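haha ok so turns out i had the wrong file open the whole time. this is the CORRECT one, sorry everyone. sequence first:
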Amino acid sequence: MSKLTRRNFVKLTSSVAAVGLTACAGGPSPSIAGNYKHRVVIIGGGYAGAVAAKYIRMADSSVKVTLIEQNKHYYSCPLSNWVVAGFRDINVQKWGYDGLKGHGVEVVHEKATKVDAVGKKVTTASGNTFKYDQLLVSPGVGFRDLEGYDEAATHKMPHAWKAGPQTVQLAKQLKAMKNGDPFIMVAPPNPFRCPPGPYERASLVAHYLKKHKPRSKVLILDAKDKFSKFGLFTGGWKQLYGYGTANSMIEWVPGGEGGKVSRVDANSMTVYTEMEEFKSSCINIIPAQKANKIAVDAGLTNKKGWCPVNLKTFESKLHKDVYVIGDSSAAAGLPKSGYAANSEAKVCAAAIVAKLNHKAVPTPSYVNTCYSMLSPDYGISVAAVYKFDAAKPNKVQKIAGGLSPSKAPDYVRKQEALYNESWYQSIMADTFG
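then structure:
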């Protein structure tokens, strides 16, 4: 496998983007306003859905694209852990849909409630219906049941795994936490949205505690025995927070050592494992995950709770002319990350435009890069390039990749932290610009 340098990654991602744009180019000339040849409806306006809407319109203006998104503003999960730790305002994570409207996307702020895959229409909570030729579903994740963790419990033990009000809520609870109480995090089993996300949050909370509540620590109760970027995180924790010592600011309890949580009690602020119970004034529950409810109700999910798709196009394996991208898709080989969702959206957009114009669907490549912060000046990253192989259609094949070095001087970690912010501004401009 090729080692991926930053320069090579830029070259590769540029060529990947060019593949999608080339596939989309050469479509019909711009249509007269309102005189559309095809209709595409998209459910969900996040990292995947918004990008797909924009790129379909950029590729073929004869396609009417309707984006159904219930929220008027989108709050980005990537970098929202900074808000939890108190060194970023939630409004920096807030984005609107005017940029998509400028590309000619019809944005409907309603909740999609029903998909009729036979009649090819989507119904919203208000009773409006939208017919489509092709439907793209990108609703994000839903949560699996955990005993004691219901809607009421989320107000006392927020998950903050969908950025917005719960992010602010968890930040306030952290600030109000007693000095000496543990910040308890319950980490989910695989697969879930943003594999390194819980451990970045734990790191940044530890940074906050070190400065403001030095008698407290982060306690991670984990269903897993290992996690994304394991060596880089634990190495950074040793350097920054004394991990592995008696005075460590972070304690991680893996599933094999009793870290799996079986139930919670929000009234007594207690979480229970098979071996022990833990109490605190600040508890962050990140439940096990599955595809969002609209995908389940539409019959797009398999027995594991995710949406099986053709990895060349992201068309559903269960319903024709319906595509699923982002966290809800069962895209074997690709992580459930913001950048992967962006890449999936462009591959899917190219496939939809090709299909509508009776052209061959190109063989896609996909990219991912993911930054994680262990403190405001300490960043780590992973990057990879993937390609679809028709001989191995059930899993995307990784063709190149790289990690931050396990041992690096402080200035390198600080550079990665700066790259993280640059990455964020760039991908959000691509998504909503």
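The chain has a mean pLDDT of 93.
again sry for the mixup
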